[in-house]
């Protein structure tokens, strides 16, 4: 849309400048830059085609120069965007939420056996979480550790593993594939200490933890000691598959074929018009035959 608006704007500027110049005695050819012709000339510039007419006045030449410069900038930006879109492959997950997971229906869901995450799905009052547990959970093959569940992501197709973010971060360097964390498909999680009932020092521990939180030490420990996100894989070079560039080659092949067909049709039409002109100029087949034989000799 931006390119079309730019093209129309330059065509309007060329037409207006030409008309204003003609009112003040411009030496330009009469009826040269009417609205359709100005649009055609600017379109030819954007298509990187040569023009058969060069404007005389500097005002029209400046519009030409701006049109060429704009076309080069747009073409360069489009080329860079095309190369970037082909070289950088964006990973689009099949789902991003629990609703999408349930709607997809092709993924096996698992978590560590006898864990709090499993209890959350088992005893949940949320219909969505309960349906995920009943329909998608692999209840007979739940992993016993986080490491086993993380390895199942790499070895089992369409496998979703629910675990705490900290545990996955700790195991991210020890598994053979990349892991994609879905923030919208997550559960709230709390971190705390487990103590026996009627523990005598529970009040003291809570008091110390409250002081650490109030002074900001807990936040500092969390930001310094715990990783905030999964490490990104560094890809130095990425190949582009043929399927990614196949539409471009298809359009190029179709354009080449159409150009060849039009060239042959134009050549045939030119021959027919030339023969018709010769026949009209030299009336009679004998005169035309003598002229044609003389021309070939």
From TrEMBL:
Gene Ontology BP term (one): detection of stimulus involved in sensory perception
GO CC entries: plasma membrane
InterPro entries noted in UniProt: Insect_Ionotropic_Sensory_Rcpt, Iontro_rcpt_C
Keywords of the record: Cell membrane, Glycoprotein, Membrane, Receptor, Signal, Transmembrane, Transmembrane helix
Transmembrane segments annotated in the record for this chain: 62-83, 159-182, 244-265
Ionotropic glutamate receptor C-terminal domain residues: 1-223
Pfam families documented for this protein: Lig_chan (PF00060)
Keyword Cell membrane set for record: yes
Protein name: Ionotropic glutamate receptor C-terminal domain-containing protein
Organism of this sequence: Diploptera punctata (Pacific beetle cockroach)
Native organism taxonomy: Eukaryota, Metazoa, Ecdysozoa, Arthropoda, Hexapoda
């Amino acid at each position: 849309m931006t390119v079309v608006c730019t093209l129309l704007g330059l065509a309007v500027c060329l037409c207006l400048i030409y008309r204003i110049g003609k009112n003040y005695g411009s030496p330009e050819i009469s009826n040269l830059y009417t609205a359709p012709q100005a649009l055609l000339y600017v379109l030819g510039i954007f298509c990187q085609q040569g023009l058969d007419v060069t404007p005389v006045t500097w005002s029209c030449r400046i519009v030409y120069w701006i049109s060429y410069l704009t076309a080069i900038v747009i073409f360069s930006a489009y080329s860079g965007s095309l190369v970037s879109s082909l070289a950088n492959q964006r990973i689009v997950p099949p789902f991003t939420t629990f609703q999408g997971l349930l709607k997809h229906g092709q993924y096996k869901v698992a978590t560590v056996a006898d864990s709090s995450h499993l209890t959350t799905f088992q005893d949940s009052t949320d219909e969505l979480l309960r349906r995920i547990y009943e329909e998608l959970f692999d209840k007979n093959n739940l992993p016993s550790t986080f490491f086993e569940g993380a390895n199942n992501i790499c070895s089992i197709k369409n496998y979703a593993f629910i675990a705490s973010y900290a545990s996955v971060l700790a195991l991210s360097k020890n598994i053979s594939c990349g892991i994609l964390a879905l923030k919208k498909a997550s559960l709230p999680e709390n971190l705390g200490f487990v103590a026996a009932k009627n523990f005598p020092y529970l009040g003291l521990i809570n008091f110390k933890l409250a002081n650490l939180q109030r002074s900001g030490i807990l936040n500092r420990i969390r930001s310094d000691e715990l990783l905030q996100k999964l490490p990104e894989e560094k890809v130095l070079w990425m190949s582009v598959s043929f399927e990614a560039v196949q539409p471009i080659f298809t359009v190029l092949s179709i354009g080449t074929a159409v150009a060849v067909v039009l060239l042959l049709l134009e050549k045939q039409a030119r021959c027919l018009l030339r023969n018709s002109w010769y026949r009209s100029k030299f009336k009679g087949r004998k005169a035309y035959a003598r002229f044609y034989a003389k021309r070939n000799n």
